[in-house]
## 1
Amino acid sequence: MSKTEYVSPEGLRLDGRRPMEMRQLRAEIGTVAKANGSAVFEMGNTKVIAAVYGPREVQNRSQLINDHALVRCEYSMANFSTGDRMRKPKGDRRSTEISLVIRQTMEACILTHLMPRSQIDIFVQVLQADGGTRSACINAATLALADAGIPMRDIVTSCSAGYLNSTPLLDLNYIEDSAGGPDVTVGILPKLDKVTLLQMDAKLPVDIFENVMGLAIEGCKAVANYIREVLLENTKQLEFRRGL
Amino acid sequence: MRGLQLPLNQTQRIRLQRAFEKLQSLSSKANSDASVTVADTIPVNYEDAFLKGHGTTDLNGELVATVCGVVERINKLVYVRGLRARYKPEVGDIVVGRVIEVAQKRWRLEINFNQDAVLMLSSMNMPDGIQRRRTALDELNMRGIFEENDVVCAEVRNFQHDGSLQLQARSQKYGKLEKGQLLIIDPYLVKKSKLHFHHLEQFGIDLILGRNGFVWVGEHVETRDKLCRIANAVRVLSTLGFSMDADLIVETVELSSSLKIDIHDMLGSEFHVLVAEQEAERRSLMGKRRR
């Protein structure tokens, strides 16, 4: 039985990266003109678009909260996002779980008490899936919320890491993810240095887990630097174009 | 770039880039240094007493921004002026809204705010003009005054206890707006000025720049395509992200008619580039005049 080599003896992965190397990041703000805030975030071949509507009037009166804002999130994958065309992109168990995860992560950092009796909708859609979709969605949602001018206590960034061929690997792509090894997804608030999301599938001994989680947190910090650069550049652009 | 998904050919791209670079060089250096993003530390002298304003929060004893924007300091107040955000209402602002719901003795209007605004029946002049108590019959005839999806111009009266706005439309210049176009732009692009109602005589058009980012271009007489020209000028300025007032809109329209550009072509790439170049010229002239 041949075992696929995910890390070659020279230390190169299947796509030529080193074990601690992330994929290329690319972000664009303001892609959905009608939304209050929107962003496209790419991590390698994984491409995700996020749109934020709000704060606006609560549509369902029974869900209205008197002292803070209601945050709703919907995650879906486009039919064409994976290798085979998907039949039911919304409403399946995985999408519902990821919607809940993203909602809880973003709700922790939005200052909801500043916008009572209103509703914030976050829609995230995966356009191309190549591993790490959960992380890309959280990063895109953060950018979209910042674009919409919604006050947050800190940005949330996320990255995944795994353990294959006895090596911790940062930012798994689809092939490495489907290898059956552990996949740890971490979401942090970089300035506060706090973990807000931690998920893992498969099993890992605790000491190796600490290594892998530490690697994922390093990845999150790198994403945070990139996101802050993009937001700062965008703010400067808007300010000088606005004029006096 | 928001809304700027225009097909630009190579020369147009270069010209647009140059115009933006010129604008950037003209912008105040102080402002660009004071730009912050979420969770950036705001440089403050902690020994002086200062007041924490909007857009800031205290994090482990440091002052940190909660929105992306520019840090403003007025006397002892330090706050972050956010750029793209929902409308921040102030009492006395002129707003334009669309009726969402006709409820008991009030109308609910959508005005680009966290919650819908309320216009009470008692805050509205009766059609017959008499000042009287509103009866049950008036309440039943509310739809005769405003229906769903009507566009209304009103003034902010006060804030209610739950944070929503109460509007009033008691003067002759407020009320239903007919025969025109409603344009939705970002509130930060509308400059605060003394006048929000503009009657453009050379076009015969009414222009209302609502502080909430709802702009109304309406007919005074039968002048439909002049109206379309002005509406398109507002759209182009919003796409390019330039803050606007009535003079700038009129200048843009005059640019389009002097170059004999078709109304429909005003939304095309070439006109966007021309407007960006003209704005760069205008701001540099303004800067020279000040010096």
Note: Helices of chain B lie at 10-26, 29-33, 136-140, 142-145, 224-240, 246-258, 269-290.
## 2
Amino acid sequence: MLFFSYFKDLVGQEVTVELKNDLAIRGTLHSVDQYLNIKLENTKVVDQDKYPHMLSVRNCFIRGSVVRYVQLPKDGVDVDLLHDAARREARGG
Amino acid sequence: MSWAAPDDIFFSTSLAAYLDKKLLVLLRDGRKLMGLLRSFDQFANAVLEEAYERVIVGNLYCDIPLGLYIIRGENVVLIGELDVDKEELPAQMVQVPEAEIKRAQKAEKEEMLLKGTMRKRMEFLDLD
């Protein structure tokens, strides 16, 4: 629940999602769901030449189970807020 | 699960916004399927109509028709909406018939295996 809420607050920011198959996609976070599935808009593949089939893909749905990392802008995160939320979850959960 | 209102499809992560659209589906085994999304569920299982597999080897590609497909969601990596105004592939790519792409795939696989065995043979050198 914590990260679902966290990602909901991040909607609209530009992120880079790195998948377990090493594909990395930069795009605007459009939406997220309870499984941490991600929808990105205005996508651009990081190593475009290696993935020619992705050339005309502008929006995509990424299954949560295949995400390795979600890279965020350095100041896109209020680390203290997140820290507090995690402590609250640990206490209450 | 409540029923989605007409406008909800634009804001949520459901695949409803992709229905009847031509999509690229990347699978965990590296395959690239393309087709029209006709149905989906909460596991990202999907029904693809007029599906075909786009096989790419270097600058060669081939579209192999598959027909009506049900994809089990656990195999899905990514579902991408193709922009109809953009070229699907870079200009230098050449379409070839199925027999030729299968030959190219085999050659590429053998090259990978050879690279693997060469690396194994070099390991004893301890170059690192």
Note: The mean pLDDT of chain A is 92.
## 3
Amino acid sequence: MLGRTLQEVSAALKQGQITPVELCQKCLSLIKKTKFLNAYITISEEVALKQAEESEKRYKKGHSLGALDGIPVAVKDNFSTSGIETTCASNMLKGYVPPYNATVVQRLLDQGAVLMGKTNLDEFAMGSGSTDGVFGPVKNPWSYSKQYREKRKQKPHGENEDSNWLITGGSSGGSAAAVSAFTCFAALGSDTGGSTRNPAAHCGIVGFKPSYGLVSRHGLIPLVNSMDVPGILTRCVDDAATVLGVLAGHDPKDSTTIQDPGKPFMLSSLTDVSKLCIGIPKEYLVPELSSEVRSFWSKAANLFESEGAKVIEVSLPHTSYSIVCYHVLCTSEVASNMARFDGLEYGHRCDIDVSTEAMYAATRREGFNDVVRGRILAGNFFLLKENYANYFIKAQKVRRLIANDFVNVFNSGVDVLLTPTTLSEAVPYLEFIKEDNRTRSAQDDIFTQAVNMAGLPARQPEQPGRQVVEHVVETVPGDVKNAQKQ
Amino acid sequence: MAAPMLRGRCLGRCWALACIDSGSRHGRGAATGFTSSGKRGQSFVAQQPLLTAQKSRKGEHKWAAVVGLEIHAQIASNSKLFSGSQVHFAAPPNSLVSFFDASLPGTLPVLNRRCVEAAVMTGLALNCHINKKSLFDRKHYFYADLPAGYQITQQRLPIAVNGSLAYSVCVGKKWRQVITKTVRIKQIQLEQDSGKSLHDELRSQTLIDLNRAEGQLRVDANISVHHPGEPLGVRTEVKNLNSARFLARAIDYEIQRQINELENGCEILNETRSFDYKLGCTVPMRDKEGKQDYRFMPEPNLPPLLLYDTASLPAGADPQQVINIDRIREQLPELPSETREKLIQQYGILPEHSFALLNEVGLLEFFQNVIKETRAEPKKVTSWVLNIFLGFLKQRNLAVNESPVTPSVLAELLNLLDRKVISSAAAKQVFEELWRSKGKTPSQIVSERKLELMQDEEALERVCHAVMEGHPQVVMDMKRGNPRAINKLIGLVRKVTHNRADPTVIKEILEKQLSS
């Protein structure tokens, strides 16, 4: 039952094959069994059971709220959840219990979803491995798959069996692992430079990044306000569409959302791709790309072509500037957004009370890890009066150029772009930590963050029928309505 | 977040360009010789070589002061600028704080429509150009009353720019002469207010109230001095002045302080100072060291603010979602300059009086009500309202609406005066009585105290004659040309007639009798 898709289990609930409480208990039990994955920071057992009971009452009366009623979901721990601790995997917010729900959380709950818990991440969503949070790293469930264990047996290392586990990617690694390990049917992540798509790729599930402005950010503790979006992680594309239908639409509490109210939508069951034009950006063929990924990319392109789609090479000429541009803008906004963490109103406060300044300094040093502090310092540097024009303004201009690259391509008749999500498959943790967070982010974000800067939607689809640990290619639709089922 | 604020910046070069003779300044007396000494200063520079401050002797050089004001005015709205929480004066601390106001992580600002309308109205009233597109920025600094670590303001592109305001200034001896000046309004911007901090020295604590409904009007003054013709001097900022009176004193003090420093060969630091009300001087603020870099950055959670006028309004636009500048202009009440002009045209009163009538709350309405009910000349009414009536109010620290004398009553009094039933002096007496004892009409008081003017001119002539006969020495003084002598005689005549004769008429009769 737990291995089914959201739509399948929703049907099962409707038909009474299983009750919401049974489903919830099964998931809770599996979460406990898979604790070693470290996917969850907080398991909201009592809340979940209560919600499941409410859902059961509704089903008994025949008044289910919809496709999400009674469905176990998980939420990344950088979304505000009323009454449930929200830490962002940081010492700064350990013990912080928000008094309100993020809009996306509220919309899920309003549809009857059952909240299993808050998932692990890189501290404040800064990272591409889900390894840099204060609660420890998240382990990729595929580390324990038959295929991977067999693969490892071929290379005798003689170490402890568990020492060579694979990372989930990040920063929404906990959500990806939770979905991938069948402990829930959908999870919320966030995506600023690839943080939903990257772990989705590494964990073999679907990761969807909506267009900026489509889904409300109210309650999402921000990393980069002008690029953040809530992300959706599910086991199949239809499930992602179902969840998107619930989340999308205007929120008066978020002034950057579109004006249109949300409405549910279904993907067309059309599998005819003959009218589709698919673009392959040539700049994404970089030497660091692993041969496996490259071959997958080709296979996917050929698959489309053989089904009648037009597949052409396109150019996104400013791709090579996107990493540095992203880093300038990202760190600048981070420096600004982190300014509120001063220990006064909420969160961690140090013991020093000699002066306000001393308190700020110690609180922030104790509360933030190196990665966060590094980005704050860098961001403040770029925002200094003497640097602002040369760094921030210039980066904004480059951002405009990058966004225009996409506009030009989509205006020339291309419907969808097909690119890799990651450079290679999920790597072992021991190898990942050989480079620092900044280096890893720079490497791993290469295919994903241009899309964030342009505000475009992008999807990391699951690999149908494959059970190996490979990331898969991602598609960047020019228009959300044209999203096709694979 | 906070109580919504409008910030206006006046560049006061026109306003407070006071050429000051160092050493001759006392309080408001700076206005003395305002325009004329400015010219003197100009010509002085042209004719003689400039000496540096270090080489000058005290009192030799003319100084020019430049003052710019930053005015923080709280918008009258029911809720705050960016959060839905309410605004209430004197609410208990931290009782009106929304999640956004407390800067809880994940909260976002939402612009308050009423505040935008208020800003547009203010811009129109101050003759500004309204920017159809304006932007919001973050201004970063760490302080306990700023929970987010930044303030949302409009630094790059504010909502209104390039306005002006005409006002009156009293100059000349005893500030009798009033002239009209214009001050430039550099810009008007919307911004959040910070919280309030109370320092508890005893427990070495600072208490923070995030309600932000206090301090409805605050002014920061930027002040520098220089020699005319030379570049502007280093400026200091004097913060958080809450009344016009203290603002004036602080500026005057600071101008003098800077002059003294410079004449003693010291430098002026570009610093922030506060005004010590008790000592009447400005002091450096302890917690600002050096110049702050506010690391301005666009506010990413607020899209550009777009305003429309009737011409540019998109077709089918939802009126709830857009702001039309033309509509707001139509809804503006009559502005003071218009009202003043009407008063001058209609009643022939002097411009400076038109300012005075509008400067006191309720006074214009009082004046107009008196005019309605009296036949007395507007000039007379003006004089009575502005000098006598207003004087009585000020002495007793009352507002117009607290006056025991109503417009009807004053009108009645003025009618008596106009019909020459009573003298001017008697009228003043009646007025005093009216103020003290309510319920009596002027006519009642006049008859009770027998203040009616003597109508019998012949009888008055006889009295004058008799007085003159009785005081030959004074008459001799008069003949010798002593101006005070006649006043003595007038006084004596008044005594005899129990003050029921018009002193002006007495004087005429005496002079006539003397010359005959």
Note: The CA atoms of residues 32 and 43 of chain A lie 9 Å apart.
## 4
Amino acid sequence: MLSTIQPPRYLSRFPLRRRTKCRSLHILSSAEPLTKTSLTDQSQILSIRELLLSRQLSAVELTHSYLDRLKQTEPHIKCFLHVSDSGKVLKQAQEIDDKIKRNEEVGPLAGVPVAIKDNICTADMPSTGGSHILEGYRPPFDATSVKRLKDLGAIVVGKTNLDEFGMGSTTEASAFKVTANPWDLSRVPGGSSGGSAASVSARQCAVSLGSDTGGSVRQPASFCGVVGLKPTYGRVSRFGLMAYASSLDVIGCFGSTVADTGILLHAISGHDSLDATSSKREVPDFTTQFTSASSLKSRPLEGLRVGLIRETVDAGVDSGVKSTIQGAAAHLEQLGCILKEVSLPSFSLGLPAYYILASSESSSNLSRYDGVRYGNQASSDELNALYEESRAKGFGSEVKMRILMGTYALSAGYYDAYYKRAQQVRTIIRKSFKAALVENDILISPAAPSAAYKIGEKKNDPLAMYAGDIMTVNVNLAGLPALVLPCGFVEGGAVGLPVGLQMIGAAFDEEKLLKVGHIFEQTLQGYNFIPPLISNGAFA
Amino acid sequence: MASKLFRTIRIHPFLLCPTALFSSRNVALYCTMKSSQTQTATQEKHQPPKVKVPQHALKKTVDKITRDYEAIIGIETHVQLSTLTKAFCSCPYNYGSQPNTSICPICMGLPGALPVLNSRVIEFAVKLGLALNCKLSLNSKFDRKQYFYPDLPKGYQISQFDIPIATGGYVDLDIPLEFGGGHRKFGITRVHMEEDAGKLLHSGNGAQVDLNRAGVPLLEIVSEPDMRTGIEAAEYAAELQRVVRYLGISNGNMQEGSLRCDVNVSIRPIGQSEFGTKVEVKNLNSFSSINRAIDFEISRQAQLHSQGQGNQIVQETRLWEEGAQKTVTMRKKEGLSDYRYFPEPDLPEVILTQEYVDSVHNSLPELPEMKRRRYENMGLSMQDVLFLANDMNVAEYFDATLSSGADLKLAANWIMGDIAAYMKNEKLSINEIKLTPQELGELIASIKGGTISGKIGKEILFELLAKGGTVKGLIEEKDLVQINDPVEIGKMIDKVISENPKQLEQYRGGKTKLQGFFAGQVMKLSKGKANPGLLNKILLEKLNAKS
């Protein structure tokens, strides 16, 4: 089936190869003890490295293959707001090839094509945050995470679409375009990092960076059938990330495997002198634990205490999602985990607290977009009119609504009733998660109450859209790390829609999440999380 | 509250003709000497107001009116800190550089840029908090103060709201004698850290923004409403300037805007306990404008009150117009502005340990108030005390001179007299003169010990000031040792007397004034080296002996 993709020339070699041939909608099979053993199954980044260093493939060939697929698929999926100049990208690839030829050291991410969410600053290309107010804006600096990726040899292929400044759950709130879900082009990819999730799902890049303020990495990962990793607050520098809600924002990772997100996270983690909220904690090398599944014991997670959050499989959650998550929980039990239901009574408070805090902070963070120093300026002779018009024209309605809500919540006379109270709720939530993570090694839940829904379905019902964030916002309020990985499918679209399992860990314990997630992924049988539209070359 | 603390009676509770008063000793009030810092605000000269001073009679009636009222004055002071880099980024700040040459993504508020606190700001804030006898908050935080203005790049100012780093202190000062003298203690409500905004430059083609100053660290000092007169307010500001200069945390220059004072003035009938409506006055670029603006404002408000128009005093911001010597309405306040303060999420809390505070406390220099009390206890007059302690470098010079063994009074006189005059003429600071305190001590000792005469001492002083060198070296080089030998002096007197028989005759004829003539001639002959006391004694003997 892969040979049907013509061109690219190199796809027969990379990276869509999968050993197991199976339909997407398979039920968890316990029949054959199949394990995933090829390097590609474990990590695209590691297999790229092996192919390059063993000289089976050149970086230029590799880059061509990705660029070709990007060119074919992009008109249908619309992941990117800006695609890097192919000449520049190929030149970078050539430099890597030259280094390898000269037997020089290349970075651990050499030749790895990455996409960057457009609210993360990149020095040499536009960074709009998905907003008209920054149309054409080119930052004079790279975000710290981007700089670190470039320093390690990664190649930035473009800037991905998002809900304006990260405010939204569908990517429909982008000022520029609507991104489609590669599993069903009539559906949303989730958001706000919809472009980053869809681009990995569509194999337009190997890995991508997103940002997660209330679930903006995890929910689109779930909708697109890819792995999404939201690190602990402070693990990754926010310098260069356009602030939405500073106390909640983190830069997160997308990959097609758990190992890829772990390797990507490792590359961007660690203290940054340019971000006072970045942690000085040492970053453990969680890139070495991605052992091949064939070397695993029969019950590799023996004794691991897993708590399924009861409130996340309650009413209001799609029944298909519920049963998929229960299937995933059963799989964890098979791997040796001790499964327990835990109740977090404060869970439902997270959503209103989140929307008050995030809106409050955003109303402040977005004040800088006034049209005075950069971005689009409305022409006016009078100062207030200049502000009003620049902002009225520059911001979309979702952003305006959140600025208004936040301004209200911070106003004299309302501060105590809203902002302060939400902070108190946040403290309660943080404590309850901390306690639950003392009794459990990890907590699990769905990443979203449903699979991907139709474009336009919730566009005029913001409350329904906000309600979709219930699974993820608490984790941001508590500042914890969480990993979302595809664990099954529900009916929908032509081939079914992927469902993501969310694993929540203790602060700064990404290592455990990645280990558990990797084992779960490598032992999960019978699923193929490459969208058929991509693997069967429908756009070729 | 503060009135209880006053140790002396105020002589002029409300000075309504401050200009007249100021024209006399204005310079002496704040600072008579140039400090080591360039171009100081304290060295201000009184500029004659361009309006006519009100007629004497009118002035008297106003004076009378104001005596029925008490003024309540509080001051908000912004001190620009002299850190090498800005508060939250690594841009340097230099006053007067080309617009927008000292900016970066952080102080421009570019998307994605984050503030990182310069730890020196904390250190300076702790220093000032301690120097102002405040209680320090070991756990404080930054907040965002939100408003839109083109000079505010982020749309909010990083400041401190409900938990300032220092609270509840006071400042001690002495009012110069010419303004009634006396000690004062004024309360300090709070000291907090914040960042400065940029500047708007208005030109023909509209307004432009210069962000060089954006993000420069400030300390805002809020006083208790303890001051009652313009002089007290000006002295309070001058004391803050001395303190920040002693601490080395700011150049305190008012003209450059490194020290900015906004004053709040209200009046109430004497005996009333409620405060009147307060008016804020801005644009005060010198101590004398603080003084004059306040006194103008007091008389304006008192006149309105006395004419039954007290309700026309409204809460507003007024601007001091230096040229017209009056305050004018800048903007009326429409209720309280809502700055929507909330905790700055980009910066961690500011946590101080007691050990840190103690270590800063131990490193504080001797502060102006301590210096003044020490000098006072040494026996110097208050006028000398105020002069010497005004500038830390002068005080240090004085202290060093004393520690080289010099006589207290003589050292003070030399520094305040000839040395100060020289510095003023040559526009030098005390750190720039070539005379070391040790040599000044030597010079004083040489005169006192009779090695050289006072006159010669003065001559070589100017040589030492300009060229340096040692007293001993100069005396030797120029053969300036005083002649104390009566025989030698006698011989010179004889020579002069014999060469001037006419004058001798006149002297003996009763024109005894001619003694001066003879003394001068002898001194000339001795090249100024003859001991003048001895000379006069022997001269008198010889002139009178043969009569």
Note: Chain B touches chain A at residues 105, 108-117, 144, 146, 148, 150, 153-156, 209, 336, 338, 340-342, 345-348 (CB under 8 Å).
